[in-house]
Specification:
By secondary structure, the chain is α/β, with parallel strands linked by helices.
């Protein structure tokens, strides 16, 4: 029998326009109200940014560790995408539910909310914690703030399940995600006098070539065949600079990312790039003008999720969702942040990552049903088993 209440909850969640550049407070307050209807008090943690908030609530004995079910409330923009229906109106076509965030990851949040009455009525020996964060799709600031709160609790969760779309398979590791903005300052002259100037565009190209060479060395340095691209990756995604064809560019800015294998820190690689700029490139530029500079601005640096700390949790969770083989993904999650404060974390949620961020994003109803079955089994397990 179809769960019409679940579909109604997902419809309401999708209707909240929680694109990362917008406020998510209305959604958070609505969820807090839903929890209050079942006698569950939520801690709403307002962020340092206006219009941003996290939510954390405990169902069951607060003096026990339990399991945290975590999801991010924000979604990516829809501007410029060719949707065939309103992205903020859940639309059903056969067995699929279309809407921004349906897969990434309001489908999981809807399942958790629909399980709240069951969790509240159960005789839990271990609690369920519900956590919602903000800005996962940009700088993961919300989870960083929430993790600071969790680290200071007398009892923190013993485990976490993040409901990113994995087709309800258990993912035990993901790459880290770091993004940097590089600003190059040159010295502007007429191009006919180019030896008296420094082109910021050409200097940026030189740094980018160094990044390309570093990528090739990373191919030889190590691999993890659990990932589709089994190496740490470096990618330059955006560049802009210069004013005219006959003027050496004074300024150029580019953005690059590092997706590091678990155990590899992007900051270490960044220092290698910075050292090359300081020791090799800049001395030559300063012979022309001391105004020349190469500055690095970190935008985000999120650690990867390392399976070494999650094996026991993964093995315990696999039978609950019918998973037979552990997975590893290249997209970033908040798992590494939680792992860094001592909370073992896996990724498991309804939907497919290939449709996330895309126009006509959708989740299969069957995936939501599998998620509900997983949460029901987890509830039954927490009624009688201590999480280790």
């Amino acid at each position: 029998m179809e769960n019409t209440a679940l579909l109604a909850t997902l419809s309401r969640l999708v209707a909240f326009d929680t694109v990362s550049s917008h406020s998510n407070v209305e959604l958070i307050d609505w969820v807090a109200g839903r929890l209050a209807e079942h006698g569950i008090q939520a801690f709403v943690q307002h962020g340092t940014e206006a219009g941003k908030a996290n939510l954390y609530a405990t169902i069951g004995p607060a003096d026990q560790a339990g399991v945290m079910l975590s999801g991010h409330s924000d979604v990516v923009p829809v501007a410029g995408q060719n949707w065939t229906s309103d992205p903020f109106t859940l639309t059903r076509r056969d067995t699929r539910l279309y809407g921004r965030g349906a897969a990434d990851m309001k489908g999981f949040i809807a399942c958790v909310l629909e399980m709240v009455p069951r969790f509240a009525a159960a005789q839990l020996t271990q609690p369920v914690h519900v956590a919602l964060s903000y800005n996962e799709e940009t700088d993961m600031r919300g989870m960083r703030v929430l993790a600071e709160h969790l680290a200071g609790l007398p009892v923190r969760p013993a485990a976490c399940v993040i409901g990113e779309p994995t087709s309800m398979q258990v993912v035990v590791a993901n790459k880290g995600a770091a993004i940097y903005r590089v600003r190059v300052r040159g010295f502007s002259v007429h191009s006919s006098l180019r030896d008296q100037g420094v082109s910021a565009v050409e200097v940026a190209a030189e740094v980018i070539c160094f990044l390309g060479a570093l990528q090739e060395r990373l191919r030889d340095a190590g691999r993890n065949d659990g990932f589709e691209f089994p190496h740490t990756s470096i990618h330059v995604g955006k560049i802009e600079g210069g004013t005219a064809h006959n003027i050496t560019a004074r300024d150029c800015t580019f953005i690059f990312e590092i997706r590091a294998l678990p155990g590899v820190r992007a900051a270490t690689l960044l220092e290698e790039v910075r050292a090359h700029c300081v020791g090799t490139i800049l001395p030559r530029l300063h012979q022309v003008s001391t105004e020349c500079a190469i500055d690095f601005e970190p935008i985000v640096d999120t650690p990867g999720l390392d399976e070494g700390g999650n094996r026991n949790l993964a093995q315990a969770m696999m039978p609950l969702c019918g998973c037979h083989a552990l997975g590893r993904v290249s997209f970033g999650t908040e798992g590494g942040i939680l792992q860094d404060i001592g909370v073992p974390t896996i990724i498991c949620g309804p939907g497919e990552i290939r449709v996330a961020h895309q126009p006509d994003e959708y989740v299969e109803i069957e995936q939501l049903e599998r998620c509900m079955a997983f949460l029901e089994t987890l509830c039954h397990r927490l009624e009688r088993t201590r999480v280790s």
